[in-house]
Design a protein that fits this description.
Strand order of the largest sheet: 1-2-3
Oligomer: single chain
Shape: globular
Radius of gyration: 18 Å
Helix content: 40-55%
Number of domains: 2
Structural class: mainly alpha
Largest sheet: 3 strands, antiparallel
């Protein structure tokens, strides 16, 4: 039950959302502690808007995107990855899982979005169809369903800590739990935990490493310096994330040119230390 205790603040954050699909490994929540933080619907809406702003400037056209140098499109406010058929990439694919999540919520996901594989095999074909009926319809549906995308991102974030505790080195688990709890004591700290899992993953995918060094949430929590709970922890989380991302850039294949993303990544992580 120790994992559930540290996991509770994020569960409370989204307690007003509809229930998530049942999962066998979901921890049983304990009663809220006196210091547990619960956010209003307006604050939850703010997190969704901030994630959309982070990923594509809050623009509707950014809800269906194919970034330069990537082999797949990114969809929705969270830029959920969608792989074309027979492509097996390094990054964790999330669009098919989101589409199933939305369908289970009885939402009418456009038929093209329910396909297990991205029907566009290249950026060129994607861009040719960008203003066609399928992608236009998908963008319109996504723009009208921001809340379910935010809930899905929160659902993935809630699953992150148990996954991390199973994957982390035993000697680091207490540190990870303590740092997670320190960050989760402020609204912007909760935003940071939710956004970062969507942004760079939970850190447990063994393929999401360079030179055996990762940058997902697990690695950031291990990277954090010892600071007090609250805003100091939220700021340190952002600083630790930037240190891990700088190491990622240093270790990345030169052909990927990842240094071009440094400024944007740093700006995003700096936002974690500012009030929501």
């Amino acid at each position: 039950m120790q994992v559930a205790r540290f996991f509770l603040p994020v569960a409370l954050l989204f307690s007003a959302c509809s229930a998530d699909p049942p999962a066998a490994n979901n921890p049983t929540p304990q009663q809220p502690s006196r210091n547990a933080l619960s956010l209003t619907a307006a604050q939850k809406s703010s997190i969704g808007r901030k994630i959309w702003q982070n990923e594509s400037g809050g623009k509707v056209e950014g809800l269906t995107a194919w970034n330069a140098g990537e082999e797949f499109p990114s969809m929705g406010i969270g830029h959920f990855i969608w792989y074309p058929k027979d492509f097996n990439g390094r990054w964790t694919e999330t669009w098919p899982e989101f589409a199933r999540y939305a369908a289970r919520r009885s939402l009418s996901v456009p038929a093209v979005g329910l396909q297990p594989d991205c029907p566009w095999q290249s950026k060129a074909s994607f861009m040719r169809d960008f203003n066609g009926p399928q992608l236009t319809g998908l963008r319109n549906w996504l723009a009208a369903n921001i809340s379910v995308q935010t809930e899905f991102i929160a659902y993935k974030s809630r699953a992150a800590l148990p996954n991390i505790m199973n994957a982390a080195p035993a000697a680091q688990r207490a540190r990870i739990q303590a740092n997670y709890q320190k960050v989760a004591t402020t609204p912007n700290g909760l935003y940071a935990l939710v956004d970062y899992v969507n942004f760079k993953g939970d850190g447990t995918n063994p393929k999401e490493v360079y030179a055996r060094q990762g940058w997902g949430l697990m690695w950031v929590l291990m990277e954090m310096r010892n600071v007090p709970s609250g805003q100091a922890a939220a700021r340190e989380f952002g600083a630790a994330a930037n240190r891990r991302l700088d190491l990622r850039i240093k270790n990345s294949p030169s052909a990927r040119g990842e240094s071009r993303w440094r400024a944007g990544w740093h700006n995003r992580c700096h936002s974690y230390g500012r009030p929501l």
